[in-house]
Every structure is written in structure tokens, then in C-alpha cells.
Write the C-alpha cells for this entry.
Amino acid sequence: QDLPVIRAAVLQIGTVNWELTAIRENGFDTEHGFDLEVQGYADNAATRIAVEGGEADMAVADWIWVARQRAAGKDYVFIPYSKAVGALLVPEDSEAEDLTDMAGGKIGIAGGPLDKSWLILRAYAQQEYGMDLKAETEQVFGAPPLIFKSGLSGDYAGSINFWHFLAKMKAGGMRELVSVETAASELGLDPDTPLLGYYMKEDFIEAHPGIAQSFYNASRDVKDMLADDDGAWEAVRPQMNAKTDAQFEQLKADWLAGAPARGPVDAEAAGRLLALMAELGGEELVGEATTVPEGLFADVQ
Amino acid sequence: MTGKASGPLLSVAALLGLWVVAAALTADPQILPSPLALWQPFVRELSTGTLPHHLGATLVRVAWAFVLAMLLGTAIGLAMGRSERVNRLLDPWLVIFLNLPALVLIVLCYLWIGLTEAAAITAVTLNKVPNVATVIREGARALDRDLDAMAKVYRMSATTRFLHVTLPQLAPFLAASARSGIAVIWKIVLVVEFLGRSSGVGFQIHMYFQLFDVAMVLVYALSFIGVMLAVEWAILQPWERRARRWRTA
Amino acid sequence: MTGKASGPLLSVAALLGLWVVAAALTADPQILPSPLALWQPFVRELSTGTLPHHLGATLVRVAWAFVLAMLLGTAIGLAMGRSERVNRLLDPWLVIFLNLPALVLIVLCYLWIGLTEAAAITAVTLNKVPNVATVIREGARALDRDLDAMAKVYRMSATTRFLHVTLPQLAPFLAASARSGIAVIWKIVLVVEFLGRSSGVGFQIHMYFQLFDVAMVLVYALSFIGVMLAVEWAILQPWERRARRWRTA
Amino acid sequence: MGDPAAVGTAGEALADGMIRVDILSKRYGRVPVLGPVHFRIAPGETVALLGPSGIGKSTILRILAGIDTDFEGCVSRPEHMAIVFQEPTLLPWRSALRNLTLANAGLSEAAAREALARVGLKGRGEAFPGQLSLGQQRRLALARAFAGRPELLIMDEPFVSLDAKTAETMIALTETLIAETRPATLFVTHARAEAERLADRILELRGEPATLSPHLVQTEGYD
Amino acid sequence: MGDPAAVGTAGEALADGMIRVDILSKRYGRVPVLGPVHFRIAPGETVALLGPSGIGKSTILRILAGIDTDFEGCVSRPEHMAIVFQEPTLLPWRSALRNLTLANAGLSEAAAREALARVGLKGRGEAFPGQLSLGQQRRLALARAFAGRPELLIMDEPFVSLDAKTAETMIALTETLIAETRPATLFVTHARAEAERLADRILELRGEPATLSPHLVQTEGYD
Ligand SMILES: Nc1ncnc2c1ncn2[C@@H]1O[C@H](COP(=O)(O)OP(=O)(O)OP(=O)(O)O)[C@@H](O)[C@H]1O
Ligand SMILES: Nc1ncnc2c1ncn2[C@@H]1O[C@H](COP(=O)(O)OP(=O)(O)OP(=O)(O)O)[C@@H](O)[C@H]1O
Ligand SMILES: [Mg+2]
Ligand SMILES: [Mg+2]
């Protein structure tokens, strides 16, 4: 019997790949009635071109980006994957105690001026300390690996990076000054809203009814398995590129901490986040998606 | 004059026409917006000053790297083209640096010098010098020996020789490497900017590319191309016409 | 013979020496590993077949794009250099395509043609053609008119004219654009590969860069450079020496 | 106005094999160099063109050969021509031998070597033009022109840069060629003796813009 | 062995202003072109060099001028030279006027225009060499050599490609120059009449490899 195939375009070295590999290796895909095909790419942009160009059915993005695309007319649907978010790290010997100590210093930021962690931290600094973080610090935007390296060398007063680099930076002795999760709660946002997820085209879901739910089930199975069984991580470890045990443990812990609760995304909580993003990032960030577009979140249980 | 000037304008118009048709066929403004759809974002970016700011930053980098790369590359290329010994010594270096991926050089520069303007310009220059040197070396090898002998017998000064004997013979090679040089430099500047600068057209293009906003990507790309067309028509071509006058006279 | 061959070897050795010193000074194998530290990963990648696989994929792409770009670029450049009318019509296109960011062309090709090998090669070719055309155009403009007249009066066939009158005059320009051409093509192939292919040296380099594994980045970059050095020494230079024999005789 | 040797014209005129040059005027930029210049050359006839340096002799040859088409007037000529330029105009990147065979499509290698020997370049077939003395290059250019058995032979000062003995050999060679294949020949020279020896007729250019000096224009009879 | 005109040698030899050429041998590749060739030229003396095409005349001039240093033997010559090559060898991208002033550092524009007028190129100062007829280019090359008032003047067939009248003017001009500034002069020609008219002495090359034919070598007296 022919199972429907989901072609997933992911970063070859992305953390998502840990989950997808585990799905395939443990046969969770066929168990839930589909075949998973993983295409590895070297860059996020490549995965998006793959979906848009019809070479893949699924890729990974944050839902604000997906919302923007949907508002612009693409029929993308979002399936939650992780609520892991960034943090602001300071060097080991830094005396900084909160964001106000960043004033006058350099902040290294991976991902550019529209990085969501950076935006949330800016809003948080504004609300908590009445501080304009953007005006009072100097920002250095750079490729994640470069921010990782120069952050570790102590070039910046603070660094914001993607979570798996943060894990390695923490393992390298850097200290978390404030996590985006904390900042988000302080801003009245729901920290459990998963930011990162898979997205598929609506016509793909229509062509294969129930496929979103099947995939979500498989994804949850892996999360449960990895949460319950330490031994299962050993199968993932070769992919994790952890140079030390400390890195491995940190990556593992952070990954598990990022797993969201089962269930659909709370559209109302998401709406609050989007409103804040629209306010901070403006049209540049959200495009025409000033409110959560209808049908953005897949109705997965 | 008007007859001659209309050629380029016509051909730019034809290209625009082609674009309109392609956009209409694609029928997805997210993949290929029509040129008209770019006008509004362009004006907006212009009036907020964002575009001039980033374009300015990029142009400064391109200009620096261009001047440095042309000077160094011409000197190295001339030396290699004129002396077989220098060539044998430097040739492997040339091949290696020519083929070293931009990424590697850029990352190494950033790591050594830091995420600074100097590092960015150094990286671009190092990327481009071997290109210029390769082209100029061929030019130097093709230099006319009889004219050299003449210059020697008449004891022309080094400056005179360079300006009036060597340079005119190198002119086609210089024009070729300047023109394709600026293009390559600007392409590398784009990479340099998105890897480690917080301003510039490359930074903006990459950001909008992350957002899949093709219209804005095109707005920035075309702004730079506009500047290049202006440079081409206002500086390079008149200079070339002057330098080539003796051929057509 | 041995005396001549030792020059390049010596200079490669000098470069390696410089690298060892730089690595020792940097004293951070994460930023600049010493050449020795690359040997083991190199052998590993070689024996698992990963490196040959990716290198092969890249070389095929480079070869295709190179041949296509040289053919098209030479044809366009010759036409533009020989006819002022063609030049006036195509010149703005040349400037525009020359300065269109690789990223833009690559993404458009991928979106239109799909994430296929053909799209990748088309994207690289389109990126490179204007470069070749620019250089060859200068060469075509510098062609000797007296020889042309001679060829015309003696009613040489088109092939004879091209092979024996035009080509030898274009040789320095062809050599220049071939050499700097391969380098540029390979740099664009790197981008093409990380934007939409699942194999190739560019894919590997970008991946290891994301992992901040400079050693592996260098292993892959240097493997390609090794191939280029081999091509240079085994093909390009002997050919050039033959083509240049009449100058030094 | 300027109908520069359209193929139609050429075919028509060549019905009788006659070569017709009817230049009304030729300018470089705004400077008129040639005034009206009309002459005919019959098949097998040899004509010398004389005139001071810079008067326009080479210009006329270039117009006749179809190299310069930017003039007022019209010219008819046979298809199969050979030319000796004022400078050797060889392919510097091809051997002496290849220079002969490339310019004369049908020429066998043996015939080319034979042609080289006749101009005193025996054994130099593999040399590049740059390895020959200027006089040797000029002889190579002569050999190239003679090797093709042309219907129209155009020569611009073919015998300069040669010592008396070599020049004599070359002139004799030219005479033989003309006697054998009877091409229409137009050649420029500064040596009146040379002109009188080789030519059936002498044309002389004078004035500014240059015209044929009247007493020597004997072409009317052919019209 | 080959000590090609080291500056030391040159200075020493020039104490008496005498130009010494002592070539032991010169080869191209493995072919010997020149055998032993020894001669002297005193300041103010004019020497003609004769010989058949391809014998090695230009080679000797190039060795004397210091252009070719790849030979066995030694040569001493003054610093301040001027040369007329067998081909014009002008800078095609510079006007006629600039061709004069660039090669002669001290030459004023007025003097350069004057020099042009003397070789019959009045008013052509702005023309590029490519816009001149070959004869005009050759005259420009002559003007360039004469304008600098050299101590040693080297000329390779300076008067070919010129009609009789122009050639006569050029020869007269050369005589004037030699009379005025008295340079040591070595020139190649194929016209014995020319050689006899201008030269104090005639050297003739013969043989393979070429040497000076004995009965004409009158240089011993100067040793
Ligand atoms: N680069 C070279 N390689 C090999 N042989 C050469 C080279 N240059 C010149 N020759 C040969 O050396 C000989 C002398 O050449 P040279 O130019 O000195 O002759 P020449 O006496 O000036 O003749 P001409 O009167 O024809 O100018 C010629 O036979 C020529 O073929
Ligand atoms: N491209 C040009 N532009 C302007 N003037 C030119 C050009 N070519 C030639 N002339 C002029 O036209 C005239 C005739 O030139 P041409 O070469 O026909 O002379 P010529 O009779 O062959 O002289 P020579 O005996 O010196 O070779 C000359 O005065 C020359 O300066
Ligand atoms: Mg002439
Ligand atoms: Mg000679």
C-alpha cells in the first residue's frame, strides 16, 4: 500500500533534524500512516526555496514569518514544534546584573535587527527599566557562528544567538543574564506559545486529509520518547555535534525544555505576541499580518 | 548625439518590458513583482533615508576595496607578467588565493581583525586582488617589445614609460578588470555585509531575503545597479572613448 | 626542467610555512588550525567517500557552467566588441546583469526552474556570462584591423579567420577570463550549493561553517584548490606556453 | 551615392574581365584626400601607380581591394585577389609555412615550401614571422601573394627593404608570375626604373586632393 | 663571457668618445648569425653598414643600441642615443607631436612643431600615427631621432618608402644634422649611392655566420 510522502526540507545540521531522524529511525512515520523523506540543506533560505519551488512539502520557520507569508497570500499552515527561544548571555567575568548594565556596551546579535528575541528584549527593557536598548547600546549583527565565536572571546557586553549556539556558549562558561522566556512573561505574553514550527502548504494538507495530525502525532511520539528515555538520546548524539559532554547535556536539557505542551496553538495568546511584534518590528517584520491570519495554525490535538 | 543616446535607453526600456511580461506570466508578486510594484517601496525607503544610508555604506566599501584591489592587483600582475621569475614564485599563490572561497577569507578576516569596517574592506580586497592580477598579468605579457626597446634607447623616464608606453597597452585589460572587478567586488561586499556588518545593501538584501520579500530585495539590488549604470555612463565610457580614440581615428 | 619545476613547489612550501607560523601565533585551532591538523580529517573524509562525492558534484557543476559561460560570453563579447551597434544595444544589459547580485539570480532561477541541477547550472552561467563578455569585448575591440583586411582579401573561410586570426589575438583575454572565470564560477557555485543543493563542496563548507568547524571548512576549500592547481599545471599552463611560443621565440 | 563595389556591380563589370576604378572622392574625416580618379585595368595588364609620399596611393589600393568601402564612387574587381601590403602583415603567431597555406586555401605543403624556396626562405618554413628579418618578412608576404595565382594582384611598394640582388630576384619572380598566370596587376613604387621595367602603363597621382595627372591617364581607350 | 655593455665598460671606453663594437658571436637559439664583428666609430664619424637581406644588419644595430644584450662580446656606447628602427615604431596612441616630445624629454612644443615641418609634416601634429601614410610615419620617426641632438645616431634603412624627392629632402636633412651636431652615426642601407654620399666609411657584412668583409674593415687604424 502506498503511503503518502512528506518531503521535509531542513537544515542538515538543524536541531529539527534530530526529531525527524528519530521519527524515521523508530518507524513513527509509517506507524502514523505516512512516509517521511528528509532533504538536508545548508541554509534556512534553501529550505524555504525548496517549499516554495515545490521540491519539498514542509520546512521549519517561526510562525510570525509564516503569518507574514500567509497574509501576503501564501497558503502556509503552521504546526508547532518548539517553544525554545533565545536569551541574552554575558561573558563569564561580566559584572552585569540586568539589562541596564548593557548601556554603552556592544551587543552581538545573530539574525539581524528583526530577530524576535532581540525585539522582545527591547520591549522588556522599555517596560521594566524605561530603557531604549537599541539607542543605548551598539548592536553588532553577524552570522550566528561569528557571533558565537566573538561572544565566547568576550568581544561583546552581551550576545543574543540561536538556542543551540546559546547552549554551546553556556557550556563554554557564559552566563544567562535574562532569558527571552522571562522577558515574554513579564510582558504579559504566554511563554508556552510555541514560536517555532513546521509549515506545509494548505493544498498539500487538503490532498492528504489528516496528514497534519498524523505528522504531529509522530512528532509528539518522539518528544515523549526522548523525554522518558535517556538512552534514546544516544541515537541522536552523533547528529548533535556536541564536542563535550557538557555541551551534550546542555543541548539535551535545552531541547527538552523547549518542547511545548501538546495541543493547538492558542490563537489569542499568539495574537498578543503578534501585536507586540507589529508594534516593535513594524511592517518590515510582519508585513500585512497585523493580526493572526485565519487558518494559520493547524488544528492539531 | 540624440540618436546615439537613444540606443541604451531603448535597450533599458526593452529589458523593463521583458520584466513586465515575465512578471505577468509568473503572476506571483512574491516571486517576481512587476517593476511598477517596486516604485512605492523605493520611494518610501528613499524618503525615510534608509536606502541612502545603506547604499552609502556599501558604496564606500566598494570604492575602498576597488581602489585598493586595482592598485595592488595591477602592481602584482605587472610584476608577474614582465618577469618570468616573479611569475614562477607567485603563481601558486595566485591560484590559491584566486580559488579560496570568499567565505573562508571573510570569516578569517573577521575572526582576526574583528567584526569591523577594516576587516570587511580587507576581506573584499584580498578576494579581488588575485582577479585583477590575473587579468593584468596577461596584459603585461602581451606588451610590445619594440616599443619597450624604443623607450629604452630614448631614455624615457619611468613615469613617462609607464604612462605613455605601458598604460595605453594595458588599457583594454584595465577596463576589463575594472568593469568586471566592480561587479565582483560588489558581490563579495554583499556577502561580507550579511556575514558581519550592520549596514549596507547586502545587509538589507539578506534581511529581506530572510523575510522572502523579493520586492525589497529588488529595490536594493536595483538601486546599486542604478548607481553602477550612472558610473558606467558618466565616467567609465567617456574615459574609454577617450582612451580608444586612436583606434577609430 | 627540475630547476624550473622547483619554483612553484618552493613557493607552495613557503605558503605552508607562513600558515604554520600564523597558526602558531593565532594559537586557537578553532580559528586557524595548523595544516597538520587538517590531515587526519582529510584522510577520514576521503576514505569514507564523502569528500570525493561532494567534490565530484561541485566539479561537474563548475565544468558545465564554465563551458557554457565561456562559449556564450565569448560570442556575446565578440559581437559587442566588433559592432558598435550591437554594443549600444546590449551594453546596458551587460551592466545590469554584471551587477545583479548572485543571490537574486540564483533565487529566481530556483523558483522558476525548480531546485534542480539545471537551475543551479543556469544560475551560475547567467552570473558568469557578463563577466566573460566584458573581458572578451575589450579583446575584440583591440583586434588588428590590418590582419582583418588581409584575411578578407585572401578570402579566408570563417573558420580559418576565427581560428588563426581572431583567436590568437584573443588568447590573452581568453586566458584571463578563463582563469579568473573558474574562480568566480566556483565562488558562485558555493552560493548556489548552499542555497539549494544537497551536495557539493559549497554545501559542506556552509554546513561546517554553521558548526564553526574551520578545519573542515578548510579541508573542503583546499581540496578544490588542489584540483585547480592540478588543472592549472597540467592543462592551462602548458596550453598557454604553447599559445605564447611565438612571443618568446 | 557611394556604392562601394556591390557584388552586383562587380559581376556586371567583370563580364569583360575589366577592372574599373571610378572614385569620385575620398575623405578622411573632413579632409578630402582623393579627387576624381578613374582608371581601368585589363586582364593581364600591369599598371604602376606613382606619386609622392602621403598622396593617397595606398588609399587607392585599399579601395580597389575592397578593404576601404567608405568612399564616393564605385569599383569593380574580380573575386580572386592577392595583395602585398606596404608592411608585411603576417600572422605573427603562425609559422612562415602556415602563413602561406592559411591565406591560400588550396595550397599544399609541398607547394608552400617550394614557394618559400623561390623567395630565398628555404628551410625557414617553421620560423615565426618575428624570427625573420624585415626583408625576409617582406619576401614571405610576396610569396603569399604569388602562391595563389590571383586574377588581380595588388602590391604596395613590394621591393623595398631588399638589397639590390634580392630585389632583382624578386622582380624577376614577379615577371615570371605575371607571364605565367597573367593577372591584372596594380602596384605602387617609388622607383621609376622598376615601374618602367614591369608596367605596361604608369599612372601618376598629383595634387591635393589627388587626381591622376592628365598626360598619363591612358585608360579612356578601354571605355 | 658575454659582458654586454656594462656601464663600467661604457664609461671607460668613452673617455676618448670612441664607440667600440666587439662582437665575438651572436646566436638565435642554436643558429649562429654573427661571427666576430669588430669596429670602431669615432665621434662625428658616419659609417654605413651594407649587406644582403637577412644577414644580420639589424641585429648589429640592436646590439650596439643595447636592446639586445644576449650575445658574446662587448660594446661601448655613449648614453645619449637616438634610433630610427626599420619599422617606424611610434606610439600609436599618442599624437605625432607627443611622439616627438615624449621621446625627447627636453623638447618644447614649438621645437617639435618645427621638427615636424622640416620632415614635411607641417600641420599634422595632432594626427595619430595610424592616420599617417607609412612614408609619413617613417619621416616622423626620423624627426624623432633628429630632434634630440644625440651623440650616437643609429638608423636602419631610414630612407625607404619615400619618393625620390622626399628621400632627397630627408638625406639633405640628415647631412645638415650631422654637420651641425656631429654625432657618431651608424646606418644601414641597401642603396650604395646613399651610403657613398653620406658615409665616411662603409662596412659590409658577408658570409654565414656573418662577418665584416675584410677589404672594407678599415677600423684597425683607430686601435
Ligand atoms: N628571434 C629570432 N630567432 C631566430 N632567428 C632570428 C631572430 N631574429 C632574427 N633572426 C635571423 O637572424 C638573421 C639576421 O636578422 P636581421 O634582422 O639582423 O637581418 P637584416 O640584415 O637586418 O635583414 P634585412 O635587411 O632583411 O632587414 C636573419 O636570418 C633572421 O632570420
Ligand atoms: N585614417 C586616416 N585619417 C586621416 N588621414 C589619413 C588616414 N589614413 C591616411 N590618411 C592621410 O591620407 C593621405 C594618403 O595616405 P596614403 O596612405 O594613401 O598615402 P600613400 O600615398 O600611400 O603614402 P606613402 O607613399 O607614404 O605610403 C596621407 O596624407 C595620410 O596622412
Ligand atoms: Mg602608402
Ligand atoms: Mg633589418
Remarks:
- The interface with chain B takes residues 62, 65-67, 79-83, 85, 87, 89, 91-94, 98, 102-105, 127-128, 130-131, 144, 148, 154 of chain E (CB under 8 Å).
